[in-house]
Each structure stands twice: as structure tokens, then as C-alpha cells.
Amino acid sequence: MSTSDDPSREIVKTGESPSTTKPISEILARGTDASPPLPVDESAAALEQRLQKETDGRQEDKFYAIAIGTVLLDMAMFQHLSVIGTVCIFVLEIIILLGLAKRLGSEHVTILLDYLFYQLCKWIGLGKS
Predict the structure, then answer these.
(1) How many whole angstroms separate alpha carbon 48 and alpha carbon 44?
(2) Cα separation values, 102 from 35, 62, 74, 86, 98, Å
């Protein structure tokens, strides 16, 4: 039995596994020379990109619908509130809309609301600048 050509005995004798004989650079270099993508891969990537654009558009539409609904409710409520109540509700709405814009992924709206919230805090005296 000691003369058999069993590969498992060879691994035990040498202490190396067959998969570690190639350096990592050869394995990684082979990945860069892979065959070009198939037409199916390209169409799948195009469909995935279209789906992402559609999803982003719907998220922005949701945000704008909520923001417009908030403005309409403000128009109805602010005439019946005092100035302090109006300012408090406005600050809370800015904070809520900022969080909603971040959650829905509206970057340009998030930047605008961040700036508006910063200026409001600076005007009130909460910001240190």
C-alpha cells in the first residue's frame, strides 16, 4: 500500500494543497482576460439600468406628492394658528421632509433641505458659526 499513487498521500507528505500552487496574481490576471459579455448579459444590464431609473423616478414622485400634500395642509392650517405654532410646525415639517428625502434617495432635495434647515437653525440661534 505504500507504493500506490494516491494523491491524498502526496498532499500529506508535501504539506501543500494543489489549489495553492498558483500565485494569486495569476488567478486575478485570468479574470481580466475573460471573454467579452454575451448579448444576454448586455441586455440584462440595460434592463437593470432602466429598472433602477424607473424606481428612482417613482421614489421622487412619492416625495413630491407628499411635499405638495404638506404644503396644501399648511395652507389650510396656518391661518388658524399663532406665529409660534406656525414656526414649530414648519420646523418639524422640514425635519420630516429631510428624513423622507434621504430615505427616498432624492439627493438634490436633500441638499436643498439640509441648507434650508441649517439657515433656519442659524437664524434662530441654534447654529454655531
Answers:
(1) 6
(2) 40, 13, 22, 24, 6
